[in-house]
From TrEMBL:
<keyword id="KW-0472">Membrane</keyword>
<comment type="similarity">
    <text>Belongs to the lactate permease family.</text>
</comment>
<keyword id="KW-1133">Transmembrane helix</keyword>
<dbReference type="GO" id="GO:0015295">
    <property type="term" value="F:solute:proton symporter activity"/>
</dbReference>
<keyword id="KW-0812">Transmembrane</keyword>
<dbReference type="GO" id="GO:0005886">
    <property type="term" value="C:plasma membrane"/>
</dbReference>
<feature type="compositionally biased region" description="Basic and acidic residues">
    <location>
        <begin position="92"/>
        <end position="103"/>
    </location>
</feature>
<keyword id="KW-1003">Cell membrane</keyword>
<dbReference type="GO" id="GO:0015129">
    <property type="term" value="F:lactate transmembrane transporter activity"/>
</dbReference>
<dbReference type="Pfam" id="PF02652">
    <property type="entry name" value="Lactate_perm"/>
</dbReference>
<comment type="function">
    <text>Uptake of L-lactate across the membrane. Can also transport D-lactate and glycolate.</text>
</comment>
<dbReference type="InterPro" id="IPR003804">
    <property type="entry name" value="Lactate_perm"/>
</dbReference>
<feature type="region of interest" description="Disordered">
    <location>
        <begin position="84"/>
        <end position="110"/>
    </location>
</feature>
<protein>
    <recommendedName>
        <fullName>L-lactate permease</fullName>
    </recommendedName>
</protein>
<keyword id="KW-0813">Transport</keyword>
């Protein structure tokens, strides 16, 4: 559950440090109650946060603005969401097959 909280926290807040501040005490308490290492749950939380980073609204806006695609954030979100959820859902796009090749950002968003 820790990676899911990290993913959600970063997707909503943007920075991993903000999500850690938001859920850090919860992770420590949950770890102690479950007899687990607080370090392990904090690490799992941060690992999940990394996957949430690619779909946070701040990052989508920054990425689109940086490459001249302002206003196309929704398109980028639809492209990034499967990559963000893929490992958790067991549905990671196959990067080894040519039909799933990722050309430049402009081509991917058209």
């Amino acid at each position: 559950m820790s990676p899911v909280l990290g993913w959600f926290g970063v997707a909503v807040t943007g920075p991993d440090t903000s999500a850690n501040a938001l859920f850090g005490a919860l992770q420590v308490t949950a770890a102690r109650e479950a007899g687990l290492s607080p370090d392990l749950l904090a690490t799992a939380d941060s690992s999940g946060g990394i996957l949430g980073k690619m779909i946070s609204p701040q990052n989508l806006t920054t990425a689109c603005a940086a490459v001249g695609l302002a206003g196309r954030e929704g398109v980028l979100l639809r492209k990034a969401l499967p990559w963000s959820l893929g490992p958790a859902a067991g549905d990671m796009p196959d990067r080894g097959r040519p039909e799933h090749a990722r050309p430049g950002l402009d081509a991917a968003l058209t």
